[in-house]
């Protein structure tokens, strides 16, 4: 899911996820038998013989998710596809194909749009998900909508069983269990630091943070390695670590405790924003790293199989009341953190 670069006004009294829940209620739960995961995860999932197909879509709108003139056209194309590939990675699947719809205002040059598609071609060449078609329409604001499909073998990391969600060889938000540990790939907060730097019109030494914002790396290889190793719970960090871990807790009916000193943050982010890196790493979003949950033994055993550093940051516990995320300081004391994530309709 793409986090916007500014806060649009909204007349909705419900937040994004409450509204999605209402839409799900309207659509109902009577899904075709081949649909094994519907609304509520990173992708919808359909069973196809012994394999599974995953489906996702995302939209980026000028003035909401990006600003023309601030992000290079090539990077805009890269990111618009990368965020969809990240959803596929969060299921442990392999990207297959993408369809792209572009809404074009009259003042956007065709050469600039061609550069957007060069960015799309570059990210799919590296991570999969070839663009195979789409649509071009006139619009009052530039927007890009990408729909992506991926696939996963039913033999990946075992699976089978009684056909319930727990037995599926997929990474799902609902797979966390008390006693599991919480881990994350790479580091978090750099993209939020890049966004902050752009907003402050700051340059010099911050280019690496801006690059993390504009050209995220979908962790496709890591997602496939996780599911092959037996991990069954993950989400990509798009709305922020706290928010996205909260989605796992809600879907799994558990709570989580995170040790603040264990959160992996780049030295550059700490250097540039020494008083704000904690907030940026917890609520900034757009890192598109994988946040996943499994037993400590399983996570320790898969480190060599994953192509990016893996850091354990917390533990899953039973939820005695409502599912929640809490924090501990370096000496183990509870810490109150007033940090949330992005909600398109409440901001």
Task: Give a description of the structure.
By secondary structure, the protein is α+β, with helices and mostly antiparallel strands. It has a single domain (16-335), classed as PurM-like C-terminal domain (Phosphoribosyl-aminoimidazole Synthetase, Chain A, domain 2). It contains ten helices and 13 strands. The protein has helices at 16-27, 73-89, 110-127, 190-199, 207-214, 220-229, 241-252, 267-272, 277-283, 296-302, and strands spanning 35-37, 44-48, 51-61, 94-104, 130-138, 143-153, 181-185, 233-236, 254-259, 290-294, 310-318, 325-328, 334-335. The strands form two sheets. The protein has a seven-stranded mixed sheet. Strands 1-2-3-6-4-5 form a six-stranded mixed sheet, covered by helices on one side. Helix 2 (73-89) runs parallel beside helix 3 (110-127). The longest helix has 18 residues, at 110-127. It is globular. 46% of the residues are buried. Residues 4-12, 158-163 and 341-347 have low confidence and may be disordered.
Condensed summary:
Helices cover 31% and strands 24% of the residues. The chain is α+β, with helices and mostly antiparallel strands and 347 residues long. A seven-stranded mixed beta sheet has the order 8-10-7-11-9-12-13. A six-stranded mixed beta sheet has the order 1-2-3-6-4-5, with helices on one face.
